[in-house]
Amino acid sequence: MKKYAIVTILLVLAGSVLFAGGSKDTKSSPGAKTIVRVGTEGAYPPYNFVTATGEADGYDVAVVKAIGELLPQYQFVFVPTAWDGIFVALEGGDFDLIASNLGWRKEREEKYYLSTVPYLWGASEIVFKSGRTDIHSLSDLKGKKVAAGVGTSTTTWLEEYIKTTNSNIEIVYTDGNIVNALTEIETGRVDATITSFITTQLTAESLGYKITGITTPELTVSSIHLLFPKTETGKTYQDAFDGALKQLLANGKLAELSRKYFFGKNYTTQEAVAAGL
């Protein structure tokens, strides 16, 4: 119920009477803008979140809005959707693309169109409750419980790591909401999680939790992409968005947005992220 309430509020604010009425049609009258619905989690600040006034915000949202300035034929409507249902919603036609800090994965590239131009680069850290002295590396997670969101790139990577190294790390699957993972850590039901420390630190501060994040050589820098359905329309959007992203990267707009949402840091190139780790 909460999800649908938020969606309704955002659609009203966006003036999208078309979708608010329940239609999945994205066609517009000749000469009018095409409505493009953008799925985003809306609960992963500073990448994407919903403000107190019910507006979608965050780096993912700002990038799409910047793309919109270069592609005036489109009008974007943001649809916050819980992470564990976001791909099902895309495949069900609830929106036309996903902008939600999605890392590159071979399985995703085979099933969907990904923007060929990354709009962000990021690296995960091992995050645990401050004060612990028993976690200094990935191998220190052996025999411990790690919270991991279902279907995330990091979770897939951790599953493969456990399999290839035969490590006895127990994954405790979550719905991807970082609040739930942090609560599990705070109460001691799990020992750690592997995620973006930027997002986790912001959320932990709002909850009054104290956490520590560490990097390890195994957690490499990965690219972040927009994701489209593998349809003719999805391909059209991919081509159009790639062109816009190239312009935004070249003219410094992506870097400007990165610094705005990531505490003055530019994470729009692989080299910049690696230098900051």
From TrEMBL:
SUPFAM superfamilies, alphabetized: Periplasmic binding protein-like II
Signal peptide location: 1-20
This protein's UniProt keywords: Signal
Domain Solute-binding protein family 3/N-terminal: start-end pairs: 35-265
Protein name as annotated: Amino acid ABC-transporter, periplasmic amino acid-binding protein
